[in-house]
# Entry
Amino acid sequence: MDFCMEAERKVPVSGEYDIIVCGAGPAGVCAAIAAARNGAKTCLIELKGCLGGTWTAGLLAWIIDHGNKNGIIAELIGELCAISGREYDRDKSMPFDVEDMKYLLESKCIDAGVDIRLHTAITAVVKKDDSTLDCVITESKSGREAWRAQVFIDATGDGDLGAKAGCRFAVGNPDTGLTQPMSLLCLMTGIKLEDVKDVTNGYCADWREGKLALKSEMNRGGVDPSYGFPTIFHLVDDVFLMMANHQYKVSALSADDVTRATLTARKEIRSQIQALRSLGGRWKNLRLIATGEQIGVREGRRIKGLYELTLEDMIAGAEFDDAVCKCRFGIDVHATDPTKDKGIESSGKYKVKPYDIPLRSLISADVGNLMMAGRCISGDFFAHSSYRVTGDAAAMGEAAGHVAALAAREHISPAAVKFSK
Ligand SMILES: Cc1cc2nc3c(=O)[nH]c(=O)nc-3n(C[C@H](O)[C@H](O)[C@H](O)COP(=O)(O)OP(=O)(O)OC[C@H]3O[C@@H](n4cnc5c(N)ncnc54)[C@H](O)[C@@H]3O)c2cc1C
# Structure
């Protein structure tokens, strides 16, 4: 490989904060709101043009594992329900309108006093010493900038900040190195709920049968979906969400892979919509509204923390004194190898119980003033496939923001904050 050398340069420090949260997905937004509400001067830096991450740029308008949680996630759901006139049902996954979510997250951050910077990528760090971060470096239309804080929270999903800071991390299944497939999601309309209940998640009598029925409809229209259990979710009125593709053997850490996966998936979605439309009848007016700006990435780096959550913890239903929330969602490993299975490869393999997520899994083992929240916390391949869902990501974010604010106020490390469940 050929290389060139960049010239050394002075980088302006654009802001000094108590807390900087990197990445504004479900975890990052809740972390920033919690930190600011606890009195910390807080900045939230996000690569995309909206807050919400997979919820919004990824179009994943379906919140799982929120029912046993209070705090910011409950507040968000309560307000989404008020906007849409829907009942708050803690026993069911929560659908929402993506634009409502974008606006709500922006309003909540602004009300809490969070400084928001969109369209800005975390690209490097400056350290005070081996185990202390001084600044994150960003790139954007404003050029290269530095941002200083006492405590940083990596909520980039892929663990970009932890990696730049030199933290140890793991990726993929330890036996094969393979990661779960990505899926590009889309919104569609032109169908009526009463006509498609047999193939719609939560309305069909059996979730598996509903997915297989949708697959056979696609087959009848001449396409075979790359995800063996294609799924339609009803969001609001005549708007539906579809997850019907799997992009196998692609790495979230390779821009080439993510680009190829996105282009392939977008093409497949068009062919699936056309195939269903071609059937006429209930599908005849089916129309694609939007595909995600961001392909859905199930897994990136898992940054090493003071505690690594494991499959054994899930099987035991582990409880911890420093629990930040209880995760009730099971193991959900989507097929890593399409030659073996195109569905859920973990289906029925392990019996797990609800388990606690400890604060120690949200604190870096290598950098004292770095916390993680969301899918990049410290856990093994199987635990990650469970706690990555957004009800838990949001709760982790809130806890991280709260603890980071206390640490900054006391000028101590997050690990030294006295915290109990
Ligand atoms: C296809 C798919 C289907 C899913 N289905 C469900 C479901 O039905 N229900 C459910 O609850 N969960 C579901 N999940 C899981 C869930 O969406 C994610 O695990 C969750 O969004 C994790 O939240 P997060 O905040 O950790 O990460 P993300 O939502 O990934 O947010 C990370 C944010 O960081 C930003 N970012 C990344 N790198 C940088 C950088 N270098 N600089 C600045 N910003 C950066 C990103 O733009 C993004 O906004 C699904 C996931 C996928 C991929």
Remarks:
- Residues 186-291 form one domain.
